[in-house]
Write a structure and sequence with these properties.
Elements (H helix, E strand, L loop, with lengths): L9 E6 L5 E4 L5 E5 L2 E4 L11 E5 L2 E4 L10 H8 L10 H4 L4 H9 L4 H11 L8 H15 L2 E5 L3 H11 L9 H10 L7 E6 L4 H10 L10 E6 L7 H6 L10 E2 L2 E2 L16 E6 H10 L7 H4 L3 E7 L4 H8 L3 E11 L2 H13 L3 E8 L5 E4 L2 E4 L9 E7 L1 H7 L4
Parallel strand pairs: 8-9, 8-13, 9-12, 10-12, 13-14
Antiparallel strand pairs: 1-2, 1-7, 3-4, 5-6, 5-7, 10-11, 14-18, 15-18, 16-17
Helix pairs in contact: 4-5
């Protein structure tokens, strides 16, 4: 993937000390970088990623840190100056510009660099400071008065952190460590057959697609099926954030093409590979009617190697519906914030002997302060307990049920 912004990218604009946002880089359209600067979105194409920029007039300039190096100790002593009288003057005599003056300059569109220059001129003590003190003052002033921007592409980790900071209940209080363990235990990787029942607004299925995606090949020979509850898909936001809008990832919705990949609409969609979305209701209706002409039938006969269920509702009914489509020895991973709910699910399927090797794991990893004779979690952490149930599909049950796999 390119290290610069490209057309049709979804990028994350990280504003220092201000609101961040995600934007789609299009040929047309405008974006407001700050209160006084509006630029064409297309002008972002070619700008390096993960580099800090600031606005100088109407131009974006990279931030460069100047290192102050002194020739020797004698030069350092000559440069320091006499700082003993600094701070003894009256406060109104130190700086002639008031906070109202600074606000007025910002409203007039004066750049942060120019504001700093004016503050230096209005300071009665700046010239008497040493080189190091001046550099330190300048860095602090720039951080306060000059808006900086960093353009990034989201990864799974940054996307989870960003969404958790905004609305954790929307994503079922998933954090990066929990999501990482879900994908690891489910062995999500290119070439696998993975089914996800995601009630975290599509975050988990987008993360799984990200892990399975091969640049320039899409999912390739892998099969990814996203099962969602309800009639309205809520999956585009996180797919876009991870730049998974590749035409090779377009599949079907309930067996029907979601977007034409070819002008020949007579071609049947390939339901043995690629990305597909299907409603839970369509699966239930397909089983109830036992109609082999149903479009989702090939998806149900795939024999999935991994099944992931994430949500706040009771997972037992959903797992009972989806378990028959897991191949023998396939991995089942269920995420929930309630330990009792997962324990009920684990006990039920253990009695039915539908799975083996079931275990419940607490996923939340706490940051600890390690001090002499004292170790405890950091007291300022925002923690929501979360657990995953990991089990494996029983070969005996698969044979008895006659499941393809």
């Amino acid at each position: 993937m390119s290290s610069t912004i490209e057309l049709n990218d979804w990028i994350f604009i990280d504003r220092e000390n201000d609101k961040s946002e995600m934007v789609h880089v299009k040929a047309k359209g405008r974006i407001r970088l700050n209160k006084n600067c509006v630029i064409q979105i297309g002008d972002l194409v070619g700008i390096p990623l993960n580099v800090k920029f600031y606005i100088d007039g109407d131009q974006l300039q990279p931030v460069r840190i100047d290192n102050v190096l002194l020739e020797d100790k004698e030069a350092e002593l000559d440069d320091v100056g006499d700082n003993r009288t600094i701070g003894l003057e009256k406060s109104q005599e130190v700086q002639t510009h008031t906070s109202d003056d600074i606000t007025a300059m910002q409203n007039e569109g004066v750049s942060g660099t120019e504001i700093i220059d004016r503050l230096k001129e209005g300071s009665s003590t700046f010239e008497s400071k040493g080189v190091y003190s001046q550099a330190k003052w300048t860095r602090r002033a720039l951080a306060k008065h000059r808006q900086t921007f960093t353009f990034r592409r989201h990864t799974i980790n940054t996307l989870v952190q960003w969404e958790f900071a905004k609305q954790p209940d929307k994503i079922c209080h998933l954090q990066a460590d929990s999501l990482g363990q879900i994908l690891q235990h489910a062995s999500v990787m290119p070439g696998r057959k993975v089914m996800v029942v995601d009630q975290a607004f599509g975050l988990v299925q987008a993360a799984a697609m990200y892990k399975m995606h091969i640049p320039d090949e899409g999912i390739a020979d892998g099969l990814f099926t996203n099962v969602y509850v309800g009639t309205r898909k809520q999956t585009s936001e996180f797919r876009q954030a991870l730049n998974l809008a590749d035409p090779k990832l377009y599949g079907t919705h309930n067996g029907r093409p979601t977007r034409a990949q070819t002008t020949d609409h007579s071609l049947e969609p390939d339901l043995t590979r690629g990305v597909h979305d299907v409603t839970l209701q369509a699966i239930i209706e397909c089983e109830a009617t036992d109609d082999l002409s149903q479009d989702v039938r090939p998806l149900l006969e795939a024999g999935y190697e991994s099944l992931i269920i994430v949500g706040d509702a009771d997972p037992t009914p959903t797992l009972a519906i989806m378990l028959p489509y897991v191949a023998g020895g396939g991995t089942v991973v269920v995420y929930h914030t309630s330990l009792s709910a997962l324990q009920t699910t684990a006990d039920y399927f253990a009695r039915e002997r539908a799975v083996f090797g079931g275990s419940i794991i607490q996923t939340q990893q706490l940051s600890h302060q390690v001090l002499p004779a004292r170790t405890h979690p950091a007291m300022t952490m925002q923690v929501m307990p979360s657990y995953i149930y990991v089990a494996y599909r029983s070969e005996r049950e698969v044979a008895r049920a006659g499941v393809v796999g």
